């Protein structure tokens, strides 16, 4: 045996889970080892040079099963015999008596000649794919040189896509020293779990500390890391979740692209994604984005799919692969049937002696169409019949080909059925359950349905022929137990098995497997198997439990911002709800419609949200569900509030009338708060409605749960934002956001609104309190967060708000930089959610561009901006116009005074005071009186100017409105100076200077913005 070891080299074939021997001048051959002996060898080889104790081996390979030490010794003896190793002179495995074993040898990679891959298992030679393999290796070379590549491998079932990828990875390991991450799409009910293959690939990368994947995940992809419990603790995931932004559907895509690029910086990274025909929408979007990025990293994406399995639902995959290839972002390899030449090479065993195989090759080509899988099955069938034999020189027919041709060739299904007939009853029982469980399967979820214990089930699986199943990876259950998984040799094999089971028996098995999964996974752990549970209970006809698990799957999709996958789950759930009795069906349909509408309106900005809410309102009205009808009408009002003020107010009035019929006083108060808040934001301040909100909030604090109170407080913070109660805004948002963010309820719209208040409303309020430095830094961080999350619309809107802040900081140039791009975009009257710029965002930008131009002394440009904004407000009123019109009128007063049109300025100032008086916004009340004071002084009426200064000071009394107060003092100083009252003028000058100094002091020393504010505000006060 020692001579054998010297003359040969051994290597582990990880693709086919076996040990191989390479000999000079001969084809590689498989070395006989049982699956368990192979597992022992692989475990030792993966831990070279260190002592592996008996206990470690037993725990890793026989978890929770008692195994006698003699069994482990027998496997070591079998391995030594296969390797030609000895105890006295070990070359591979060294024994430490009483302690364990140390692997001291070297297992080489597969031998291969240039352009010719190593042999495959089933047919004895890898033929007909040399060109495809060469293309893959060439793409790897380009990727390794810093030119990212993507390749899509397509072909019919059985054409060898997986075998090709396996051969490529075996060659790549010695070709470019790459890091490899593999993920598999799985066929699942209602679509697969969003990003399933990507998470699988990342989990594989994270197991190898050398890849740096865990550190990169934490730094670059917190949204992904937060959903990987095996890699990060609960505390770490909680901290990472705080970095996520609701309503940013591209966040996870952008994070993943950055992550894979970072991991492919030093060493080539091969990302393999198999069976894309089963991919979820989110994964397709990610692949598209990753392929389109142009960066100098060493990334190769390899993806496989079956074109004939693409249905209408997978149209995005068809479109993506076509578009990427068209624009040179990817390469396509389409595997064709094997040629007669390739088949002949296979039949000759790669010996080159093909003379006797040519006619046989023609026969096999005709019978199988050149499909490698069909070839294997047909040859095995003929082998079992004794019609062919396999020799050292390849396959040889033992019967005349005319006789073989005269018989009906076996179909793949018939061939598999024939194999099953040769199996024992217990083997067939195991396979029946396995095909119901899915691919991969394991003893923990399958054994009880087969009426067996787990060790017995595994033992049967280990004895099944490799043409049926193969050992897979180890699986760790929630209990911590490790066990072996198994996979079918091909999806077709599983499908044939599944189709032969009767419907009644199939339903019973699905129920048994589903109930076993419920035993394995506690209620708080079932989200990770939600789609599997939904599938099993649906096929068992248990519609209620199916819908429960589809709700869990929906939560996962929402948490990953996978809106299209979420909508696909809702489509499936809605179809299944039709099977429920009417008493359960109607509430389920209402719930599912509401979830769809919430996603469309709250996050996806789908223009169909309006129709969905309208359908929901009609359905809830017909069936008398008042609570849901109120929510539907509120949602409909929200979906039109940005574009149609009149219809929005009509809907809110309808809600307020309808909510009086709500039986639950808590729900009634929640509805009232929602409706009154939106009416106030839409049509203007109303003391009675504000009081209704305060009273409802007080009642909810007494009787409602914490999440309901948090939602109500978040609503109330929106009122505080427009009524000079700035400090309350921060306190309310800080106290309520966390509860809403961590709520198990699906409240997407509330979460989006809450995120907006935290990221935009709070910095705006802090700025209004005069904390310039903190507020601007917070707004900058929010813009960066929105951009990182891929929400460019929110980032643009937030930048407009920063532009408004910069105006009050006297950085007029900065205001024009931030607001100018939006202000210059075309106006779209009656535009819907798919418009480029929402009306509100554009008019805020116009107003502050006008104010900035006025600050720079460009009065004509200022008036032009302000008049355009005013015209758009007149043509299409939208919510919050009343609030921003105050800034517009204030700017018009200043511009008209500077333009010498004093009478018009005074009239505008009077209108501004009237409008401000109708609000509870004390800052604007003060600025309105301050503006009228300037207009009165310009008209020569000093007494009116003095009276207005007094009113402005009174408006500032008892509230924190420093942005208005320093301007009031500056105008007061100017008015008293005009009438010769030096003492009062000096007093206002000092008071105003003190406020300006405090405001400037919130900015860092040396900050150019600080000196700009000090210089310009001082000059304005002196004028």
Quick recap:
With 1023 residues, the protein is of the alpha/beta class.
In terms of structural class, how would the helical and strand content be classed?
alpha/beta
* Backbone shape: elongated
Going by CATH, the homologous superfamily of the largest domain would be P-loop containing nucleotide triphosphate hydrolases
CATH architecture descriptor name of the largest domain: 3-Layer(aba) Sandwich
Oligomer: single chain
User: Which regions have little confidence, pLDDT < 50, spanning 5+ residues?
Assistant: 1-8, 109-122, 830-836
Give a count of the beta strands, DSSP E runs of length 2 or more. 16
Number of discrete helical segments? 47
The largest β sheet comes out as: 5 strands, parallel
Number of spatially distinct domains: 9
Over the alpha carbons, how many angstroms does the gyration radius reach?
Answer: 36 Å
Q: Looking across the biggest beta sheet, what order are the strands in?
A: 8-9-10-7-11
How is the CATH topology of the largest domain named?
A: Rossmann fold
Supply the CATH class of the largest domain: Alpha Beta
Share of helix, binned: 55-70%
